[in-house]
C-alpha cells in the first residue's frame, strides 16, 4: 500500500476510492462491479460502502484455489425444477466444478448449513404472503444466521398429491380425512409437512386423526412414488411433482421457495452462474412444462442485506 492511502489494515468499511486503491482498479470498474452485484457492497445514504472482511473473502473466492470456489453443495427442500436445473448446470460445467443437490427437507438442510457441511439450503415454510417473516424467523433460530442471506429462487403451488381418479370423489381436502384413505406423511422439519399441518389446523384436525399407515416419505418424489405404487393414497406435495408423476392435485395455495446461504457464497462466481442458469430461458420453459411455478422474482435478495 502507498503511504498516501487513507485507510489502514483495521478499517472495517471502505469507500469506492479506497477499494479502487486496495484492488488496484479504477473507480469506474468498482462502481460497475457494485451496481451489477458482483462485489460485496451496500449503500449508505446513497454512497457505496464495502465491508473490508467480505472484500478479502471475495478476492480469495476469485482466485484459482480460494475457498472451494469449485464446489456448490445444495441441500434442503425437494423440488423438481431445482433438481433439473442443478443437473443441467452440472452437465454444462462438466468436471470443472462439483455441483450437487441432496433433498433433505428444510430443517435438516438448515442444520447442515449451520455446520458448514453444505453451501446452500433450499427452504419453504408456509404460505407465500407470510414467507417474508417466517423464513428469516426460521434462520434466526441458528447461531450462524447473521452471516446468511436469503435469495428468492421462485414461487410455487403447494397442495396434495393423489391418484387422479380420486378427484372424481371430491376436490375438497376434507373429503380425504376419512380413515379409509392412507396418508404418506413427510418427515418432521419439512416445509411440505408444515404446510399440511396448517391446512389440518384450518379444519380443526391433526395428523393423529388421519390414517398414516403409509409411513414417512423423505422427499416429494418418494411421496409421489408411494402413491403411484399404491402404497399410499394421498400426500402433501407440489403441483409440479404431481404433473411429473401423472397424479391428481388439490391446490392449498402458493409459497415462496428461497435459498439460504452465507454471504461469501452469495458472491462466489459459481453461485452467480447457477442463478443465471435458473433464470435462463430453458429453465423458464422447464418451469412452464412442469407447471405451478412463478420465476418472476428469481435471484432477488429478500433478507440479510444489513
Structure description:
By secondary structure, this protein is an alpha+beta fold. Among the domains are: 50 residues, Arc Repressor Mutant, subunit A, CATH 1.10.10; 136 residues, D-Maltodextrin-Binding Protein, domain 2 (3-Layer(aba) Sandwich), CATH 3.40.190. Strands 4, 5, 6, 7, 10, 11, 12 and 13 form an eight-stranded mixed beta sheet that branches. A three-stranded antiparallel beta sheet has the order 1-3-2. The protein has a two-stranded parallel sheet with strand order 8-9. Helix 7 links the parallel strand 8 and strand 9. The longest helix is centred in the first third of the chain and has 14 residues. The chain is elongated, with a radius of gyration of 22 Å. The two termini are 29 Å apart.
Amino acid at each position: 500500500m502507498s503511504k498516501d492511502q487513507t485507510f489502514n489494515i483495521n478499517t472495517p468499511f471502505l469507500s469506492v476510492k479506497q477499494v479502487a486503491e486496495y484492488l488496484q482498479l479504477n473507480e469506474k470498474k468498482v462502481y460497475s462491479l457494485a451496481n451489477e452485484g458482483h462485489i460485496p457492497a451496500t449503500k449508505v445514504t446513497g454512497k457505496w460502502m464495502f465491508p473490508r472482511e467480505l472484500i478479502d473473502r471475495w478476492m480469495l473466492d476469485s482466485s484459482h484455489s480460494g475457498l472451494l470456489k469449485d464446489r456448490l453443495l445444495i441441500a434442503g427442500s425437494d423440488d423438481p425444477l431445482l433438481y433439473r436445473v442443478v443437473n443441467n448446470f452440472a452437465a454444462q460445467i462438466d468436471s470443472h466444478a462439483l455441483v450437487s443437490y441432496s433433498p433433505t427437507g428444510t430443517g435438516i438442510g438448515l442444520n447442515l448449513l449451520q455446520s458448514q457441511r453444505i453451501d446452500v439450503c433450499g427452504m419453504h415454510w408456509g404460505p407465500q404472503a407470510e414467507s417474508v417473516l417466517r423464513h428469516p424467523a426460521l434462520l434466526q433460530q441458528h447461531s450462524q444466521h447473521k452471516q446468511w442471506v436469503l435469495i428468492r429462487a421462485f414461487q410455487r403451488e403447494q397442495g396434495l398429491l393423489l391418484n387422479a381418479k380420486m378427484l372424481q370423489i371430491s376436490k375438497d381436502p376434507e373429503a380425504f380425512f376419512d380413515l379409509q384413505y392412507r396418508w404418506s406423511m413427510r418427515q418432521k422439519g419439512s416445509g411440505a409437512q408444515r404446510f399440511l399441518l396448517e391446512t389440518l389446523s384450518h379444519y380443526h384436525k391433526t395428523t393423529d386423526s388421519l390414517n398414516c399407515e403409509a409411513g414417512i416419505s423423505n422427499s416429494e418424489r418418494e411421496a409421489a412414488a408411494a402413491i403411484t405404487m399404491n402404497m399410499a393414497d394421498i400426500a402433501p406435495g407440489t403441483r409440479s411433482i404431481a404433473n411429473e408423476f401423472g397424479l391428481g392435485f388439490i391446490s392449498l395455495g402458493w409459497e415462496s421457495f428461497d435459498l439460504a446461504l452465507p454471504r461469501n457464497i452469495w458472491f462466489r462466481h459459481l453461485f452467480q452462474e447457477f442463478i443465471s442458469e435458473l433464470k435462463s430461458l430453458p429453465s423458464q420453459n422447464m418451469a412452464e412444462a412442469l407447471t405451478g411455478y412463478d420465476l418472476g422474482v428469481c435471484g432477488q435478495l429478500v433478507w440479510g442485506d444489513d
